[in-house]
Design goal:
By secondary structure, the protein is mainly alpha-helical. The protein has 14 helices and two strands; from the N terminus they run ααββαααααααααααα. The radius of gyration is 21 Å and the shape is globular. This is Vesicular inhibitory amino acid transporter isoform X2.
């Protein structure tokens, strides 16, 4: 569950996504939870095959194993490599987002210092250099646990402030007219990205004491996440309306904003090691096939290059929400919608009735549409942001 909540920082972008998508955004928050819960369950079902007596037996262990099983008649290893690349892209983009957020929070929190977001990202990079030396997942897990606790605290602080501003809610209303298509597609990417957890589910299900409770766990966690995200987004929008910023903490009063931003800065910095560690492990063992006995300096150079890459990308991305939307469109839609539905259809086709097949095909088409259109709109938005910079 630690990894599942590592994306909690990006809940801060949901009120802005709601501003961009209007009433459709509320529907999207609920539909995304339902669909992501379903695709998570069918992905884990692909880890199992029935034995002679019809009982499910776990014959695969990772997302990569599922992909390889689906592509075994074409090229046995190509599926796993595609999944590894997609996971690597998502994790690296997550690291970049943490640096972008850290730079933004640092320049706003330490207002007594003449810092720009770019300088803040560079300072964050220096603070995070020891990540190259982390080789034990237990260290990363402890840091992520504190981050999860901090996320709940920060979320309830913001919700508490919004509730206190309830007298002015009557003047706020979501868009009921035609929503801008580009803004809506970016919002779809943001919402999808906030629910992505599929790459961690095979490991999570394997570690459960009673794996029969997995589907129940998925239903309850996604329902709770949907309620919290919807309440957070609606309350924030009702409080600030059209003035809602890309990162909602920028709307808070100066004193409260400084306190919350400092907490978020610490959370962002402590969250970075988890996706960085996972990305380095995939790059090292999944793609480059380097074992733990490889030359120490080779591994340090690999991790240092990956760390530097995230900094360079953070320095050249001007808009937080656009990068978040692009990530959701590229890897979030693929890993959360496209691939689970595709793998489920291929591995379980003979066991599915017509309604389940149609549902999987619908999710497949939806994922493809969201991915392609979201990428186009996000890239167009980035080009515009670069031109206006």
């Amino acid at each position: 569950m630690i990894k599942y909540f590592s994306k909690g920082l990006f809940v801060l972008g949901l009120p802005y996504a709601l501003l961009q998508s209007g009433y459709l955004g509320l529907l999207l928050l609920v539909l995304a939870a339902l669909i992501c819960s379903y695709t998570g369950k069918i992905l884990v079902s692909c880890l199992y095959e029935e034995d002679e007596s019809g009982c499910p037996v776990r014959v695969r262990h990772t997302y990569e194993d599922i992909a390889n099983a689906c592509c075994r008649h074409i090229c046995p290893c190509i599926g796993g490599k595609v999944v590894n690349v997609a996971q690597l892209v998502e994790l690296v983009m997550t690291c970049i987002l943490y640096l972008v957020v850290s730079g933004n929070l640092m320049c706003h929190s330490l207002f007594f210092l003449p810092l720009s977001p770019t300088t803040g990202s560079a300072i964050s990079f220096l603070i995070l250099l020891p990540c190259m030396l982390i080789r034990d997942l237990r260290v990363v897990s402890r840091l992520s646990l504190f981050c999860s606790l901090a996320q709940f605290l920060i979320t309830f602080i913001v919700i508490g402030y919004c509730v206190r501003q309830s007298p002015q809610w009557a003047s706020r209303s979501l868009r009921a007219d035609v929503v801008d298509f580009d803004g809506f597609q970016v919002a779809v990417g943001v919402i999808i990205f906030s629910y992505t957890s599929q790459i961690y589910l095979p490991t999570l299900e394997e570690s459960m004491m009673d794996r029969l409770d997995f589907n129940t766990m998925m239903d309850w966690t996604h329902a709770l996440a949907c309620v919290l995200k919807t309440a957070f987004s609606v309350l924030a929008f009702l409080t600030w309306g059209e003035e809602t910023k890309e990162v909602i903490t920028d709307n808070l009063p100066s004193a409260l904003r400084t306190v919350v931003n400092l907490c978020l800065l610490a959370k962002a910095l402590l969250s970075y090691p988890l996706p960085f560690y996972a990305a380095a492990e995939i790059l090292q063992t999944g793609l480059l096939k380097l074992d733990s006995g490889s030359e120490r300096w080779t591994l340090l150079l690999l991790r240092g290059s990956l760390l530097l890459l995230t900094l360079l990308m953070a320095l050249f991305v001007p808009r937080f929400s656009l990068l978040m939307g692009l990530t959701g469109s590229v890897t979030g839609a693929a890993m959360t919608l496209l691939l689970p539905a595709l793998f489920h259809l291929q591995l379980k086709w003979t066991q599915l009735d017509l309604s389940r097949r149609m549902l999987d095909l619908l999710i497949l088409l939806l994922g493809g549409f969201c991915s392609v259109s979201g990428v186009i709109c996000s890239i167009r938005g980035m080009i515009t942001a670069f031109e206006d910079k």
